[in-house]
Amino acid sequence: MNGDHVFIIAEAGVNHNGSLDMAMDLVDAAREAGADAVKFQTFSAASIASANAAKAGYQLQTTDAGESQLDMLRRLELSLNGHKALYDRCRKLGLEFMSTPFDLGSVDLLIELGVSRLKVPSGEITNGPLLLKVARTGLPLIVSTGMATLGDVEACLGALAYGMLDAADAPGVEAFAQVFASEEGGRLLRERVTLLHCTTEYPAPLDEVNLRAMGTLSSAFGLPVGYSDHTEGISVAVAAAARGARIIEKHFTLDKTLPGPDHKASLEPRELAAMVQSVRAVESALGHGRKVSGAAELGNRFVVRKSLIAARPIAKGEVFSEENVTVKRPGTGVSPMLWWDWLGRPADRDYVVDEVIES
Mind listing the pLDDT tens digit for each residue in 69-118? Predict the structure, then answer.
């Protein structure tokens, strides 16, 4: 990723409702909105949820409350052929295809597909075996940190560093911590990992967003940071870009009224396009950070700044004084910062009222 470019991920997730046609339409909408990537979710329902796993509160509100989480997930799976079709559509459109693996087999599927990077979702940040698996792929990793403490993030990074280093010791919490603290482990993490701040609720309450935590993550771990946004609207995502997020991820849907767990908290295509445009505007406005005169304002400098000006006619040889010199626009003459240096000097020529005094 270009260091000056905010990488925008249009999170389609499971908003295809299990329909490949709808998933294709989501790809087209993401491309039309100007996103850099469109991301789905790759999983085998039976591998990630037991028969007794409960739904989240927001899922109970947006799906059949009598349906189990497992049955809901089964409806939302994408086949291998479906993944291939989406990957090909993205490649044709010049859009990066991404997907989040939720189980070990899904990591293999995505590697076989040829993805450029992998995303570790917030719910898998404590899944040690999955963390080792994704780390050993050699791909860049994006790690979402919803629900996590700094200690959780450190433990996750330790597991990733261990996998990247392909350490020979038996894996475990102590081994992960040792590798995390090592110089080589830190180097590998800096080369390959971006952390995303996230609040895992749909929609996320504004008073629990805590955007300042992006800075905390950056300071604590020295890694690039971004933001995975679950709030309503686009303002928080745009604010995150202004606070230095290198990646913005945002759920989107074709229609918020569709049935399914994530549609209600997602943007519709026109809103996604507005978010992309706003982030790009912020990205441009952030600039290079040096405090210098901009090209657009140089012409105004002489118009709005002031100079020493003759307050009344001044004869050649007459001494400049507070009585015959004032400060007015334009700023094409002697700077008023030199007022004290010029008082008491003899005029080198005649001046009329309102004439700019020049050096």
Answer: 888 888 899 999 999 999 999 999 999 999 999 999 999 999 999 999 99
Asked whether residue 225 carries a pLDDT value surpassing 80, the answer given is yes
The residues, ordered by sequence, that sit 6+ positions from 160 with a Cβ below 8 Å of its Cβ are 131, 134, 135, 141, 143, 189, 193
Q: Is the dihedral of CA 12, 17, 18, 20 positive or negative?
A: negative
pTM to 2 decimals? 0.89
Strand ranges across the sheet with 37-42: 96-101, 37-42, 7-13, 247-251, 225-229, 193-198, 141-144, 118-120
Tens digit of each residue's pLDDT (9 = 90 or more) over 245-264? 999 999 999 999 998 888 98
First to last CA, the chain: 51
| Residue-level pLDDT at 136 | 96
Q: Where are the domains positioned within the chain?
A: 7-286, 295-342
Cβ-based neighbour number of residue 275 at 10 Å = 26
Element (H, E) at 9: strand 7-13
Looking at domain 7-286, which of 3.30.420.340, 3.40.50.2300, 3.40.50.620, 3.20.20.70 is its CATH number?
3.20.20.70
Burial track 59-92 (b if 16+ CB lie within 10 A, e otherwise): beebbeeeebbbebbeebebeeebbebbbebbee
pLDDT for 3 equals 62
- Interatomic CA distance for residues 272 and 268, integer angstroms: 6
